[in-house]
## 1
Amino acid sequence: MTAGTAQGALGVGKFKFDSDLIGQLFIIGLAAGTALAIGYFVVAVVRGGFLRAVDETSTFIGKFFAWSIVLLTLAISYEVFCRYVLGAPTDWAFDLSYMLYGTLFMMAGAYTLARNGHVRGDFVYRSWAPRRQARMDLALYVLFFFPGIIALIYSGWDYFKLAWLLNEKSSASPNGPVIWPFKAVIPITGVFMLLQGIAESIRCVQCIRTGEWPQRQHDVEEMEKLILEQAQQAKGEKA
Amino acid sequence: MLTAILGYLSFPFISDAAMGVLMLVLFLVFLMLGFPIAFTLMAMGLGFGYYAMGPNIFQLFVQRTYSVMANDVLLSIPLFLFMGYVVERANILDRLYRSIQLAMGWLPGSLAVATLATCALFATATGIVGAVVTLMGLLAFPAMLRAGYDTRLAAGVVCAGGCLGILIPPSVMLILYGATAGVSVVKLYAAAFFPGIMLAGLYMLYVIVLAMVRPQVAPRLPPEQRSASIAKIVWELATSFFPLALLILGVLGAIMFGLATPAEAAAIGALGAVMLALAYRNFSFAKLQESVFLTARASAMVCWLFVGSAVFSAVFAYLGGQKVVEDFVLALKLSPTGFLVMTQAIIFLLGWPLEWTEIIIIFLPIFLPLLDDFGVDPIFFGVLVALNLQTSFLSPPVAMAPFYLKGVAPKQVTIDEIFNGVYPFLAIVMFSMALFYIFPGIGLWLPNYLYGPK
């Protein structure tokens, strides 16, 4: 095998796997995920009401981009394979890898919020009654969360627009892929976080009214949480 | 009225540095209100930033956010998490425990030693403390109680063993430290390798000595349970212990010998974990899906914290709050030893109410610039911190490990019994920190040998 064929190891005929294609695929993936999420949201609002629609949309977009981890694993493994076995590293894997990583965690932000998964300093909070927790949360959503996220959307949009107008390319590698689609992740994330923040605030209001936190929808849970719940149930049955 | 207040606030006699200190103090107050910390940090950074630099803060904010998104050190975090979730969901813990237990049957306190060894290996592969403690709490804890072990000893072993995974490389904690301190993750891994093994070894030594001195707390198994044929032991180890051990050593070796970056090794490790799970016929699309979704959530939790802390710490430094802290510490005229004792004591105390992610991402950046002033090697400091943070899982009142164990333990086991069992292991952690301080070579020999003194 010559170095030439090794370079385009994934190339079939005219189809060549390079930075340009990576940039295009990233745009397609991002646009598809975002469009599907918006469509999902519209349908869900009509069918199930705002709160549920927001939860489900955040979960949908988080899970859609969660699959980036599989692509990331494969892309990096392929790069290692090319370097050691074919003796010809790719020129796109590095850019692709941080783009996938950044998209993964940003887009999972709203999903994590919908699962109450962002870490809290809760050693005092935990001992409060639900109503008190909800009052404090609601106040801080207004005081901290919304200003922060609105600033993220506002500044992220400017940041994206500048890169877009310049058709900015990655400077991390020579002949890098376009980077403005990756920068678009910031304002897109911001909008979905904002929606989820509104949903969480509504939850707080419900809790203040009823004195109990509304149930969240079922989703996959951490092992310890599952086991602890099972143990709790088993003990309850015995007692 | 509002403008009057604002005008008063920005009046020149409140210096920027004083605002910086105020920022830190207010953060400590807000931290306790229980709101998701990432957003508290973000809002405070923006608020104080707007005060200090006006609308320029928005540009700084988005640039700092982007720097987290394009960070090639943090890139390996979701990969290691993914590998961990795949191993965790593959249901290989019970056969791993059985094989190690068979191989160690001849030792005094063999069940407890096997528990520690299983915890160390499994926790290193998964890096998820809660999962290890609860799973072992269901598997090893009842087994030890049935064999007549003292409840406190059994509890201490499960809790202490479950936490080893964040110390022994390849651990996510050291990646976070590397990203925060700007030091090489590769060197950190090399430096933490032997101290991690040492701590696990000291735990085992303690159990063995205790079992010999006071056999009533850890009775020997009846002969029929501890005599297995050599062939059976070898077979069990070869099918259960070695594949996972080789996976971890392969990942770690590739990183330490410079064959692959941490992210590359983690990606290959994740692929390897999937193959391992498939080989055990314990994997399905549903399990892959669970691992993928949990990875996304855990990554978001850690990386959003980084986004918040990136803007917070930039503004804190801009205001000169960092310098005030530095001047204050320098004015104490501490010796390097005094400085180390003070910082480690603070980290230990922070570990009571807080979790290690918050300590590393938010509080360590305050100490790190001081290392230079005292001539402390950041790698050495990192390993000390990693040892120290073992205690943050174990020490009351917010001790994750004991509470997880309490959740799965039989009803008659009280939380006090569990804490009493954990204290000796806390003492061993402190002892190993002292050992490492007196003989830094335990950790630093390996990176110096592999990469030369810096």
Note: The CA atoms of residues 15 and 319 of chain B lie 9 Å apart.
## 2
Amino acid sequence: MSADTMLGDRQKLAYIAAQAADARLNVELETEGMTLNIGPQHPATHGTLRIVCRLDGEQVVWAEPSAGYMHRGYEKLTEVRTFPQVTTLVNRIDWLGSFANEVPFILASEKLMGIEAPPRAQHIRTILFELSRIANVGLFLGDLAVQMGAVTPVFMAFRDREYVLNLIEGATGGRFHPNFDRIGGLKDDLPKGWIDETRQVMRKLRGFCDEMETLVFGNEIFQMRTRGIGVIPKEIALQYGLSGANLRASGVDYDLRRDQRLPMAWDKVDWKVWTHPDADSWARCWVRLMETRESTLIVERLLDTMPAGPVMAKVPRIIKVPEGEAFVATENPLGEMGYYVISKNDLGPFRVKIRSASFNNISVVPWVLRGVLVPDIITILASLYFILGDIDR
Amino acid sequence: MSLLGIVIPYWGQSLLRVLGGTVAVLLPAGTIVYLFLFKMMSFMQSRLGPMEAGPYGSMQLFAEVGKWLQKEDIIPERADRTIFKVAPLIVLVSTFLLVAVVPFGPDAYFTNFDAGVFYMLAVSSVSVLGILVAGWASANKYSLLGGLRAAGQLIAYELPMVLAVIGVVIQAGTMNLQLIVNEQNAGSMFGWDGLGNPYILTQFVGFGVFMIAVQAELTQTPFDMPIAESELVSGYMTEYSGFRFLIFFIAEFATAGVFALIASVLFLGGWGVPFSWFSWHSIADVDDWMNVVGPLIMFTKMMALVFVIMWVRFTYPRFREDQLQRFAWKALIPISLLNIMVTAILKVAF
Amino acid sequence: MPMKPKVPGLFKGLGVTLNTMMTTVTKGANTVQYPHEKEAPPIRARGVIALHEGNCTSCMLCARSCPDWCIYIEGHKELAPPRRAGGAPRKVNKLDRFDIDYALCMYCGICVEVCPFDALFWSPEYEYSEPRIADLLHDKSKLGEWMETVPEAPELEAGADKKGKK
């Protein structure tokens, strides 16, 4: 499947102009609009997100997301915890791609300590990171179908996600919250037979991607619902700080795995960054499908080139991170997630600021929802793909 | 009329008709819910469905009915109480009215109505009223949106249904459903009467349009905007719980069954097999045992059609309502009008 | 060059669901019919924590490092007879109370990891739900019972540096 463009530049500009025109209220014919709350309890928002919309019939006049219903006070919690405890807590921010949350925090702490994990640990970290991405985005593909109304693909997504979760459980002990990363490396090495099982699972997951492509993306009704809906042009996407697949679907060729030198193993294997020139919902969904497939290939290639060696560097038993500040961001399944760690030579961090991807991703919601119809709200929210734990922390 | 030699008084006949009608509506509804909603949907999703209640989960429907019946009767404070209570009944009543004209055998019918098709099309629109009323009466913005969408959609798809059926009426030359069955089973195609003349072969366009219109009339995916579970959380049914929701639920699947029965009468030959297999020539010739076998044949044909309806329902995402309306007005109606034209020309020419 | 007529995606989608249905009918479903059949969790699965009382010295490292502070330890020192005749009596630790509150436990494993005396072990048992939340506080004897379910550590993959920890 190639990146086929459906919208020309003029069409895109016309679409944006039409949205802006619809947003201006016609003063002579001021009909009373209806204020509709989407959420906080709603099947379409991934959790407790509230979007207040002012509707004129079925068209949105303005919309505003109201987040915070799931605020758990992460940044405050981290002030009174030690580094291993923070690693545990941080698993729970983006709960679908859980290992990916630990990694930037650990990398920031390692940067402050001035150590690097051994190559085998870097490899395994990257493999688990990509597995979290597959688990997260695999569910997105099914969830997307449910928002559109097709009830079957989500079961296939959960079914095939089980294989990945079983893999993560076999290596780390926890399906959803692995808590496997440590400053200086990993907690433990892989159990016997894990590599072969992973190879089989990756093959199965490619079959799953093909199934989703036929069942969901090949469906003409789905294409009618997503093509041309919710166009976010490149400049707007960059201004609002979108990241991850949302940015790449707007045509920006930016992937932190490739553009940044981190002590992880992404630069040891060949892989492709997928972008799409249309910036509509179809593009965002398509990019994620391609990324899932690409992740399965990355995992297989990393398994082929796995070095032997220790999984933990020489670190003291009780870790005290020296004084300093460090910021590390990685390409998480949801987008760009970064941790700004300030440490004062103590058992735990002094302050951690978590830059989560979904918080910035939904900042574009007021802009993109002007002038769309109510069903398209759901389509656009589904294609932006956020997780409440990531927004509210 | 006499059954097995016993003369039954009129009130007895009416009682039998009422019982028969109830069975004819509820039995398909129950079977459809179990076989297709519980089991087929589960199998398509790689799981087994309900297995605990009864052998292989066959008693699950009774368990669910019991659960709904014992729930509290909640009516929103600002809802219009009388209308709120009446709305589900309107939808169910239209199903019972519909089944009154469906023939199940040469003598097994509720009424032998000369304008059966006309009556059927008229009465099937009554459910639209029930849905619209349910949406307005619940004091809930989501239900209102669902009800308004439903009104637009159901009225839009009435027309293709009517136009599709007119092709059959032209070909049969009558609006009486029993006579339509007769025409199909006693007829012949190009002189060969081995298969009778099932109208699905000549009216395949009409059949397609009718099935799509039925999918929309039942508000099933891909036309389930009025319910739109991921947006409106059940649309017009949101505020209904317990017994009232049970009525909506049964009505949805009963109507699916009854529409499938009607489709099998109009397109698949109804309760009969081609008369030439038994060398009958018209309904008067048909043996009496057909009165028992006929309902079974109807049941089988109905199950086949509902399978297709449900299969499509579990696979496709839903249309947006303007796409839906566009599809009805710009695609289905012109196609069915063309179908009528071609049928009329061919009927007169041959 | 004749083009093959493309089957519309709508029909291919129908084919996928029909395929899945026939697979379920012929080969069985992907789901496990719990409680009639049970899946065995992997060896490293973090189900419940078991305590080997003999190794514990009440150093309180686990209680201090728990993010939830769900471990409650009380102990006292006792004098035990000397190892050799003529020696000084040894100070031995005796645990009075070692409770883990599984209503609070996050199953992170920090306590198991920091224990310097190998007194805590992971076990993949997961079926210990209780109707009363107070019963989720497992005391010393119950934690000792879980020791029987602790599996051997799995062998490690080729290329690993050291033998597996628990």
Note: The first strand of chain B starts at residue 2 and ends at 3.
